[in-house]
Design brief:
By secondary structure, this protein is α/β, with parallel strands linked by helices. It has 13 helices and 23 strands. The strands form five sheets. Strands 1, 2, 3, 11, 12, 13, 14, 15 and 23 form a nine-stranded mixed β-sheet that branches. The longest helix has 23 residues, at 135-157.
Length: 452
């Protein structure tokens, strides 16, 4: 099918967690090129993503002195907007402002004049092979989500923290629903999802796409903060009074430290703690491994393939999981992009294969649905690089089955001197940029209580 208007509909089920988690802006206040050990501060914040920015703003608002050390040469962390590839904003990481009724970033969207496009009830076009699904297949598809969510909820209510794959019934389109809920949402295959961790998360609705880029919004929020970019932290000493934070540009002394790097970076021990962190803390970090959601963004010219803007494209996958699948966000915020999602083990595999192979795969999946026009109208594409980014080592955390309690443990301070923040510590708002911001605010409150 190369052209023609496709009949789409809003999903009758509630895709509970999807869109949580994946430009222009003011520059941060950059510090001198060398840090001195004697230049003490109240708090050193490691990382200038959403959590670190929120913590810094909260602490500085209470009169504390803050220094921020960021290993990358930019701010924002896993919220990153760039316009070089397509000539318009493209978010490599966070794109959707989820749980917008409580998301603190909604205020900043309004303050800085960013635009939001509603994805809360976005239509979802379902294909079965090379044709759009019929009425009965749509009903089965929606029922699969409802049934699987019910089974996960039953496990949660019973206190059974088990792999989600163990509670799934055999129903039509079960594999398609599991592919959405697992790889495309949580970044891990269904066998790696903790039923309690999944059901503890807040609903994503209402959900909006940030037209100018979520990363651009977070970058704007960092304006005038005391951030030293290109400064990798290698060690944190906390055995005596206060802390000493060792970096590639020297050492800083402070009364406390907030660590906002990913659990992947912590588990890889890219930052060494002396003394070592308590065993329970190390176990919690290990039990929150990084999942992967990668994006394969494709630009087209003079087409919409009959698909509405700000909608989804899904297709039935084999019941043999994990699936080799790529589902698409279609023309977000009126762009000329179809942004394909690949996650879980297949996401890692395709990321290892590289950009060209990922683009070929995504184009192939569209070609099966829309024919040769896909190649004729294709302009260029890209693949996001969270799989091999040493500063993230994945997209966001997912608790191992049986270890949902690790979320609470990782957010617990150590000796009232070492504090942790980020999406892994965000309670019901895990794996989201807004949740990372909330966790940064919570860590700032903990620090203020500890320092007095």
């Amino acid at each position: 099918m190369a052209s023609g208007e496709i009949v789409t509909r809003g999903a009758g089920w509630n895709r509970r967690d999807f869109l949580r988690g994946v430009g222009a802006g003011g520059a941060a206040l950059m510090l001198p090129p060398r840090l001195m050990a004697g230049s003490g501060s109240d708090v050193v914040i490691v990382g200038a993503g959403a959590a670190g920015i929120a913590a810094a703003r909260a602490l500085m608002g209470q009169g504390y002195t803050v220094r921020m050390l960021e290993a990358a040469n930019r701010v924002g962390g896993r919220a990153f907007t760039e316009s070089r590839t397509f000539g318009s904003p493209f978010d490599h990481g966070a794109s959707w402002l989820s749980s917008a009724n409580v998301n603190p970033h909604r205020e900043y969207v309004q303050r800085y004049g960013f635009d939001l496009n509603d994805y809360t009830n976005a239509t979802d076009t379902l294909f079965v092979d090379d044709r759009e699904a019929d009425e009965r297949e749509y009903e089965q598809y929606e029922q699969a989500f409802s049934t699987i969510n019910d089974r996960i909820r039953f496990a949660y209510e019973a206190g059974d923290d088990v792999p989600a794959s163990t509670v799934v019934p055999e129903v039509p389109f079960a594999a398609t629903a599991q592919t959405w809920i697992g790889p495309m949402d949580m970044g891990v295959d269904f066998s790696g999802i903790s039923t309690i961790d999944y059901w503890s998360a807040a609903d994503a609705a209402p959900t909006y796409h940030v037209a100018q880029g979520y990363g651009a919004l977070v970058e704007r929020m960092a304006k005038d903060l005391p951030i030293e970019t290109g400064t990798a932290v290698s060690g944190i000493e906390w055995g005596g009074s206060g802390v000493r934070v060792k970096s590639s540009k020297g050492t800083l002394k402070a009364r406390a430290c907030i660590v906002t790097v990913s659990t992947g970076v912590l588990d890889a021990e890219h930052i060494r703690f002396h003394p070592a962190l308590p065993e329970r803390k190390r176990e919690a970090i290990h039990d929150l491994p990084m999942g992967l959601l990668a994006k394969v963004a494709l630009e087209f010219v003079d087409t919409r393939f009959g698909l509405p803007e700000d909608s989804w494209l899904t297709y039935r996958v084999s019941e043999e999981l994990p699936a080799e699948a790529c589902f698409f966000s279609c023309w977000p915020s009126g762009s000329n992009l179809m942004v394909g999602f690949v996650g879980g083990e297949f996401g890692w595999e395709l990321s290892r294969a590289g950009r060209d192979d990922a683009i070929d795969f995504a184009l192939g999946e569209l070609r099966k649905r829309f024919g040769s026009d896909v190649d004729r109208l294709f302009v260029r594409g890209t693949l996001t690089g969270w799989a091999d980014d040493p500063l993230s080592l994945g997209a966001y955390s997912a608790a191992r089955p049986g270890r949902a309690s690790a979320r609470e443990e990782i957010a617990t301070p150590v000796a009232d001197r070492i504090f942790f923040a980020g999406e892994a510590c965000a309670g019901a708002y895990v794996a989201t940029c807004g949740g990372a911001h909330m966790s940064g605010q919570a860590a700032a409150e903990q620090v203020a209580d500890a320092l007095g």
